[in-house]
Fold this sequence. Notes:
This protein has 182 residues and is of the alpha+beta class. It has one domain (3-121, 136-180): Pnp Oxidase, Chain A, CATH 2.30.110. It has helices at 3-19, 65-72, 101-109, 112-116, and strands at residues 27-33, 39-50, 55-61, 75-82, 85-96, 141-155, 162-168, 174-180. Strand 1 (27-33) and strand 2 (39-50) form a beta hairpin. The longest helix is centred in the N-terminal third of the chain and has 17 residues, at 3-19. The chain is elongated, with a radius of gyration of 18 Å. 23% of the residues are buried. The mean pLDDT is 96. The protein binds flavin mononucleotide. It holds the Pfam family Pyridox_oxase_2. This is Pyridoxamine-phosphate oxidase.
Amino acid sequence: xxxxxxxxxxxxxxxxxxxxPDAGFHFLTLASxxxxxxxQARTLVLRAVDRVKRTLELHTDMRSPKWQALAVxxxxxxxxxxxxxxxxxxxxxxxxxxxxxxAEAAWQRLSRRTQQTYAGAAPGSDIDHQSNDxxxxxxxxxxxxxxxxxxxxxxxxxxxxxxxxxxxTDDGALVSSKWVHP
Length: 182
Ligand SMILES: Cc1cc2nc3c(=O)[nH]c(=O)nc-3n(C[C@H](O)[C@H](O)[C@H](O)COP(=O)(O)O)c2cc1C
């Protein structure tokens, strides 16, 4: 495969990850650094991909610790692994808060059942803590739009491990790419 083909194939696989729940890249690991400088990683569902802009859309509860952490430090790495392929995507998060145009559009696309997952108590809050709030689920719904600036592709193959680095401009153009030792 050429570097151009790797670029195209990876983004195709990410698109499939967003559209198909059984696809390898449907669940991704989002890594960030919290306000104490500690690394944090968690699983999120890949909701949408724009292969032209090189963005990934993820959804979260704005009351979760990651929301505040990402507001302070928007640098992230998104990690995926499927079929012997690791994708390590570096980028920057844009936070789209509840009722913003981006969040509103994403909210409308969610099923009723998924919308209701935002109505419960705050993520990470104590299980014994009873909330009397009658939450409006949508008030808690935020969108993370991640602009990818580097893709680190690594394929494990018995005799021929391969790895490539691809860099993108802010507007999504592939600006450089090279093979590196795995
Ligand atoms: C399979 C799976 C999918 C998940 N998807 C999401 C998701 O799309 N968005 C989200 O905010 N949390 C999701 N979670 C929960 C997160 O992994 C995490 O526990 C939660 O968001 C709190 O993270 P934080 O404390 O870093 O804010 C998912 C968990 C699992 C096990």
